[in-house]
Amino acid sequence: MMLTCMLICACDEFTMIVTEIIKDPGQANGKYRVLQGDYSEDVRISNTDATRLRGTVRILEGAYLRIDNGAVVYGECETSGKLIVEKGAFCIGVGTMATPIRFTSDQVKHPHSGDWEGVVLNGITRLENVVIEYAKIGVIVNNMSVRIYNGFFRKNERECDGIKETVWRR
Predict the structure, then answer these.
(1) Domain segments of the chain: what residues?
(2) Number of DSSP helices (H) and strands (E) in the chain, helices first
(3) What pLDDT band is residue 6 in, cutting at 50, 70 and 90?
């Protein structure tokens, strides 16, 4: 017997409850996901999941980080959430103008600049239609093979750092 449940709600406040911490980040459709620590295998961030960065999350050499269009990634304020794509790792995320990829603070009701650390790109990266907001430094680029198209950095303490912007920001 299969039980199907659908919950529809509307409210002014948004509260997230952890359903599980995923150390092996395969597909976890419709769940609240927590990424933490180091990943040497491929990671996919789905647009159907609420994904939180707990502490420093590192994608290691040889691993791919794939981000679906419309995915939202929350950097934890309490643990100074930070995403690092290491040298030799890959990050691919293609959002659309209607459904961009969004990196933001987990302080949904009252976000502030500097709530979380930000994104560090040391590996080969291609991001399209991405929003990075409320971080200490939105994005740090340390690789000439980083391409960000239609990137929108806002309300960060500092928008970007690393390799001269004219090299990678097009």
Answers:
(1) 36-168
(2) 1, 13
(3) very low
